[in-house]
Amino acid sequence: xxxxxxxxxxxxxxxxxxxxxxxxxxxxxxxxxxxxxxxxxxxxxxxxxxxxxxxxxxxxxxxxxxxxxxxxxxxxxxxxxxxxxxxxxxxxxxxxxxxxxxxxxxxxxxxxxxxxxxxxxxxxxxxxxxxxxxxxxxxxxxxxxxxxxxxxxxxxxxxxxxxxxxxxxxxxxxxxxxxxxxxxxxxxxxxxxxxxxxxxxxxxxxxxxxxxxxxxxxxxxxxxxxxxxxxxxxxxxxxxxxxxxxxxxxxxxx
Length: 254
Ligand code: F6P
What we know:
Number of helices: 11
Radius of gyration: 18 Å
Distance between the termini: 28 Å
Order of helices and strands: HEHEHEHEHHEEHHEEEHEHEH
Structural class: alpha/beta
Strand content: 15-25%
Strand order of the largest sheet: 1-11-10-5-2-3-4
Number of strands: 11
Bound molecules: 6-O-phosphono-beta-D-fructofuranose
């Protein structure tokens, strides 16, 4: 029974790699829409992936969301004691405190026995105030690290769910809806062709920065996120996809 299960997951991983031209896919069993522990399993798989990619000095940029919170929960210290600095990937994206990139970043560092830097730049600032804050040397240095980390670990969400979860203005909400956005990742909303429909104005990593990177890990599962994951994959970023059976089965369906 167990062996059959493992083979089934490997088959799904191979199908996804082929279909979406990915170099690494991990599928954990179950559907996180149905069972909350599946998110933790994705978290566990992600932690393993992070550790496989650690080098001498590491800057790991992380986004927010409940899936990334599960990654943080599963984090453990690096047995080789390598240097890890966790930073948020982008500024405030309107999540509640426990699901904010800053919080997750601190939690991951604590569990990994690593270090972290937090971003304290409010999003609603006048242009002048904003310019002077980002010119502060320690903030400038952090922003530079956020834009060129050695690894990015991020979630993917359903566009409408995310627009509702954040305090999205009516104007932006209409833009997201009119543009038929289906997926969201690091503040970018994509339609099913992968076209960027809307981008949340905030500091930190931009999609063009991510396109240049080789250690990008996307963690997202649940059948309800299949469309969102598909839209994100249209970006053809060289990402590792960590997902679950629920999403994987939908993704290989035509
Ligand atoms: O808001 C941060 C974020 O990573 C989004 O970019 C993403 O769409 C969302 O969280 C995923 O959240 P969850 O893991 O809770 O579905």
